Amino acid sequence: MFVxxxxxxxxxxxxxxxxxxxxxxxxxxxxxxxxxxxxxxASNICLASGKAQREIETCRIWSQFVREHTSxxxxxxxxxxxxxxxxxxxxxxxxxxxxx
Length: 100
Hints:
This protein is an all-alpha fold. The protein has helices at residues 2-12, 18-21, 24-30, 36-43, 50-55, 60-69, 75-85.
């Protein structure tokens, strides 16, 4: 249950751009494309605005495109898998100090 909640929280963080969520290594492994931009361009779906990126969650055309050109059954599965693999940078990296 905790894993499902954490994946949902990770994939919904507003400051995570889709391009960050889908690095080239992920795209090459699971899709027919080198990177996320190339995939979007091939789909002919415009994702330039924040509104479009929110609406993609329920877009049947996009989900069908994902199903046809990736290893996933649809957009939600692709996004969930990417969120599970994504490493969020920590805000502050404190240097390691030895305490004597």
